[in-house]
Amino acid sequence: MSSRTVHSSNDQETEAKEMDNNGQGERYIHKVSVPPKQKLFKEFTMTVKETFFADDPLRPFKDQSKSRKVVLGVQAIFPILEWSRNYSFKKFRGDIIAGLTIASLCIPQDIGYAKLANLPPQYGLYSSFVPPLIYAIMGSSRDIAIGPVAVVSLLLGTLLQNEIDHTTHPAEYLRLAFTATFFAGITQATLGILRLGFLIDFLSHAAVVGFMGGAAITIALQQLKGFFGIKDFTKKTDIISVMHSVFGSVHHGWNWQTIVIGASFLAFLLVAKYIGKKNKKLFWMPAIAPLISVILSTFLVYITRADEKGVAIVKHLEKGINPSSVNQIYFSGEYLGKGFKIGIVAGMIALTEAIAIGRTFASMKDYTLDGNKEMVALGAMNVVGSMTSCYVATGSFSRSAVNYMAGCNTAVSNIVMSGVVFLTLEFITPLFKYTPNAILSAIIINAVINLIDVQAAILIWKIDKFDFVACMGAFFGVVFSSVEIGLLIAVSISFAKILLQVTRPRTALLGKIPRTTVYRNIQQYPDATKVPGVLIVRVDSAIYFSNSNYVKERILRWLTDEEERIMAADLPAIHYLIVEMSPVTDIDTSGIHALEELYRSLQKREVQLILANPGPVVIDKLHEAKFETLIGDDKIFLTVADAVAACSPKLVEEV
Amino acid sequence: MSSRTVHSSNDQETEAKEMDNNGQGERYIHKVSVPPKQKLFKEFTMTVKETFFADDPLRPFKDQSKSRKVVLGVQAIFPILEWSRNYSFKKFRGDIIAGLTIASLCIPQDIGYAKLANLPPQYGLYSSFVPPLIYAIMGSSRDIAIGPVAVVSLLLGTLLQNEIDHTTHPAEYLRLAFTATFFAGITQATLGILRLGFLIDFLSHAAVVGFMGGAAITIALQQLKGFFGIKDFTKKTDIISVMHSVFGSVHHGWNWQTIVIGASFLAFLLVAKYIGKKNKKLFWMPAIAPLISVILSTFLVYITRADEKGVAIVKHLEKGINPSSVNQIYFSGEYLGKGFKIGIVAGMIALTEAIAIGRTFASMKDYTLDGNKEMVALGAMNVVGSMTSCYVATGSFSRSAVNYMAGCNTAVSNIVMSGVVFLTLEFITPLFKYTPNAILSAIIINAVINLIDVQAAILIWKIDKFDFVACMGAFFGVVFSSVEIGLLIAVSISFAKILLQVTRPRTALLGKIPRTTVYRNIQQYPDATKVPGVLIVRVDSAIYFSNSNYVKERILRWLTDEEERIMAADLPAIHYLIVEMSPVTDIDTSGIHALEELYRSLQKREVQLILANPGPVVIDKLHEAKFETLIGDDKIFLTVADAVAACSPKLVEEV
């Protein structure tokens, strides 16, 4: 470690300076420290830990006996072993109410969502039976409600239909759905095990808001088929094709009985939702309204035999619980690869939704959620699901909210829900025969409306225009083209934003805030004054290969601009350029090259380069590269104020 | 603009504080300003300008008359019109010497490089005739020497050979080469015109060092064929296949006359290089040594008729200048797409090399180079080249260095070189008939050794271990697999580094440096002291969707760790958490959500969240999102010192 003597700012700055000038006192000196050198291996393990184990998952294992470690390890995989020991009747009361409420909500939704995925209706119910049980054992969120969800169902339906037509080859379509579900689970579990959970953070909030909104509109549009009782309906999902289908069949395709049933129950659902929103205590009204609609409308159709007048009904719903589907998964052949690809996409989207829900409720109840552990739980649940005739299940926004409001305490509410679905499958399914499709459409429309978050979009617009572009890009991509295109747009814009941030970091000119020794951005603080003869530039990012040239050239441009202004105003010429390095958290070889080039360019212009407050990593690397020897040991200061004091001593006294 | 009253640190901190405590004086107050609101359109144009026009290319056009603007526009496209007006005889003297020197170096290299690209030798010379002329008219670097280069030749040879075998289908191979060259030029020019030049910054310096080193070794290995006079040689480029070829033919394939000629002239070249390195004045020795070797060895073979004893010779070199190849480019058919793909890759690599060279010499002579303009020049030169039987040309590292040392002043040296190549093609080519291939191999080996930059690799190791992994990944990828794989590894690791930087930003605990009001990283400044009851955390990056969750959880982990330490040591509990936001240059909706969640979590723990020095963009967005209303107007301070003073007033007086 070299010893550099560098001046430091302190409270007695002014006095100290004066004493210094008079040669009477000694000025207090503080060095820019090079941090204690760390061993390579330690540095490496630290980086790996920060990247993959940022949440410090092994903390509870520290200082424990061996047998205790095994117990803790099993508990880590199956959190139910941990929380079930403190389970009480009081908690159970909350869980059973919540479980019954979400069961009443999920049954009609499941049947509808299965249709979105182009699957027979019972597969929706299957997916609400097994996966919630697995999740209850392995998951750590207390509020999430597991089952099929609208967006994933739509996505899966679109992607699968691109490969196999479900009307002509229903058996192969089903097999491919299980294959995709299997690989969705594998993808989710792998991400969790490899601790790559942070990859889902790359889909930005804004992109998700746009994508969800677009998907909601697309789903609602798809429901117009059932709602108007149209028979010839397009297989495309974009708004133009759908509108063409709808209005092309006005005269011969609409069925007025269907429309009457659908519209009146949709109105009922919306009123229930409105009441639930106005009075939080009546939250159960919107939650059970769908089931009431189903019962009422089924009864109505049964007694009026409206199905003979053209009202489409569910007709057939297989009785009994999930059959095994282990043999149905494609483990070879051309569909293996296709299922794999679809699984990755569907698995990632399902994960994004589940983790977002989990985090939201965890932060509301202030418990922490281990994202990677959650992924393993969700993955395991879908792998098991794929072998028991389920398609991709995940956390549902609407049902989780109801679960939370109904007072759930643990994942037991999912077990209760699963039990109700079991009873439904075993005993009640035949009763759904007369349920009109229009009701299912109304229920889905009512559910997905919540996904259109206009408030969030407005906030995004206010806060970050670039985010808004990502949001709208995803939205219009889904609505006007297809779910995949929307998703692609969302991911691309999210990445473009990251790259832009890394390539074009901000820089700012600093000025002195009156009556302080604080130097701040003169754009933010218009009363901050520039120091004559000195240009102070702050670089607001790590200097890496991706931006090193830009940073160098931008600093030189600040200088050129300022010199032009000075020439025009006849002010003292600039002799010092202080680069405030506080925000420069890291630098690489390209960055050091850029600084060297900057130094040489400045030398030619007779301007002295000075650095203020390089951080530990930066000073260490500058030291290794012998940059401080190049510019001079005494050209690195702890604060901008110190650097200014060294360049232009008179100025500090002025204060 | 809301008005927030926030306390500021100043020189008279101590005194002011005391006065404040006595109720006698008024403490000086400075707000954290919200910057003046900018109009949306202005903000948008500013962002676009910073992203695509960071170099302010239209600056000279400002405040000029219309006719002057036209003149300046033409000059911008053809810089020769500008610099030729100040051209003098003195400059010409430097240029002619430099031009003759690089010509003598380029002629033998060109013939060898054409063989690397699996093309007949004259195509190397063609590529040193037309492209340098075009570049001289349109380019703005004064030192770059244009022509075929080793790495691009090897890359092109590998990629083209993957599509068409050059031994069985030489005509189609040649046509695909021109097609690739055409699209390489189009790619380069397009990047320049769309001002996407920053894309090449994404290939990090470290990755380029590794890639170049690996390519140099691969090229040297390829030369063993000519050097040992082996006839059956593998077409693969990895070290294992090549070594297998070399040692598999020890007993029947090596030709001792070839080895003697090759080895002795390689020794001569290396000695010349060593002398040139020791004595900078003798730079011309290594520069003309290759030509001397060619002349001597050709003469030797001619008089000894060594070619009849198995020494392989050039045999045939077409006489005359470049024929047109406009009709040869594939503008349709399956090879259009393949040529397009190869062209993009080769064009990007060629660009990376040319821009790196241009920038290096521009910074040495202190003139600026417009990267985007350069790309247009290089692109135009390759498009014209593809129509005149040239393959991809770019700036050569070795020849540019010779050009610089020989005292070139402008691109006229390229014109001189081009003239010499013209004369060679017209009159001298038949004389190369007896040039032994071993000499060309020796010249190439001698040239590419310079590309192995061990010093740079060592420096990279010292400065940044992650960069070193990228460097070695690219190196071993090229050496043990292939050029494409090495390139893929280089690009992937470069991107991974960017993503890692964005996902896992650094955070640091701050402490007070004794006898100052400066707060710095306690790891870097071990004598900095923590403030009792207060935890100060600095976040070292913009808070975006990609890292917002990590940042939130990392801050909470700092708090948990600290609380554990405090419990153990029986110190006062933490009541305030100050987040130093100086390095947080931007925040998006996800980031604000994370801060809100952080605030809620802290509230549950009875810890007060306080922000210090949010930047202009951040304070603006916090304001829009009403975050300041959430945490309280008086919880945002200009400096950490002010924030500490507010939380724990006694501490400041202690100084």
UniProtKB/TrEMBL annotation, chains A, B:
Keywords: Membrane, Transmembrane, Transmembrane helix, Transport. Residues 1-28 are annotated as: Disordered. GO terms for cellular component: membrane. InterPro entries: S04_transporter_CS, SLC26A/SulP_dom, SLC26A/SulP_fam, STAS_dom, STAS_dom_sf. It is found in: Membrane. Belongs to the SLC26A/SulP transporter (TC 2.A.53) family. This is STAS domain-containing protein. It comes from Ficus carica (Common fig).
